[in-house]
Structure formats: structure tokens, C-alpha cells
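Sequence, please.
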């Protein structure tokens, strides 16, 4: 579980520490190389994952599918939960670096949970429920144990 930031210091100091903490939770191999970053004049980065070459074809395939298809593909063994969650975490990490859209990064916890779900499916031959392995993003207004909730005031 991540350490909580200290509340000592000015609001700006707390924000800087929190932003650094969030950045540190993006795996090094997911950091966009400076030569791949779009120029400041680029206003639409929606196609960045497709055009950057930073995601594999399979990761792109996974992250372009809808939720109903994905849960069926996980249940049938076409994809593992770890594979699906990792692909979405990578895509979210890319988005964060481009548009600052995340307040808390929980990639490590999500991938660990996905591994538990994969073990369950392998052992029991069934999913734990209808959303087995499907990654979700929750709004910062929900309290998640071990993470800060700022209602998005400081991202």
C-alpha cells in the first residue's frame, strides 16, 4: 500500500510532493520518450496510443474492445486478467503524461489483483463474477483505502 503524503508544508509544497508521488507510480518503461512527445501545438492526442508505437498490436486490440467483449474474452481464456489490466494501465499512463487526467495511480495494485483473478479462474474454471478482470477507473470522489481523495482539486 502506498505511503500517504505528509500534510506538513504549504499547499504548493504538498501539491509538488503529491505530483511527484503520482509520477513515481508510472513504471519507467511506460514513460514516453521525449522524441515521441507531441509538440505543444498539438491539441488532440486521442490517436497517440495508435500512432506512437509505444503499445503492441495486442495491447491496442485489448484497449479498443468494449467491456462486454472483454469480460467474455477473459472468461474464455482469450486474454488473461493481467494482460487486460496491464494494457489499460499502460494506456492510462500514456494519457496521464499527455493530459494529466489521473489523480491517483493504482497500477501495481490493479495488476496484483488481476493475477489473483487469473489464479482463481485457472483453479476453479469460472470467474468470480460478471466483471471478472475488467479494469475500472473511479472518480476521485470515492474513498479508496490507502489512497488520497482530493475530489480532483489538485491534479
Amino acid at each position: 500500500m502506498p505511503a500517504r503524503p505528509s500534510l506538513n508544508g504549504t499547499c504548493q509544497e504538498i501539491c509538488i510532493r503529491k505530483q511527484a508521488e503520482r509520477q513515481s507510480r508510472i513504471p519507467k518503461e511506460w514513460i514516453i520518450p521525449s522524441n515521441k512527445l507531441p509538440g505543444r501545438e498539438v491539441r488532440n492526442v486521442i490517436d497517440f496510443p495508435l500512432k506512437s508505437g509505444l503499445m503492441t498490436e495486442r495491447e491496442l486490440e485489448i484497449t479498443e474492445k468494449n467491456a462486454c467483449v472483454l469480460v467474455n474474452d477473459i472468461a474464455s481464456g482469450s486474454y488473461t486478467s493481467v494482460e487486460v489490466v496491464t494494457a489499460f494501465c499502460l494506456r492510462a499512463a500514456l494519457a496521464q503524461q499527455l493530459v494529466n487526467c489521473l489523480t491517483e495511480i493504482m497500477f501495481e495494485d490493479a495488476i496484483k489483483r488481476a493475477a489473483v483473478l487469473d489464479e482463481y479462474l485457472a483453479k476453479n474454471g469460472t470467474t468470480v463474477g460478471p466483471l471478472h478482470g475488467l479494469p475500472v477507473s473511479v472518480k476521485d470522489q470515492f474513498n479508496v483505502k490507502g489512497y488520497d481523495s482530493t475530489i480532483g482539486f489538485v491534479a
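Residues 11-124 form one domain.
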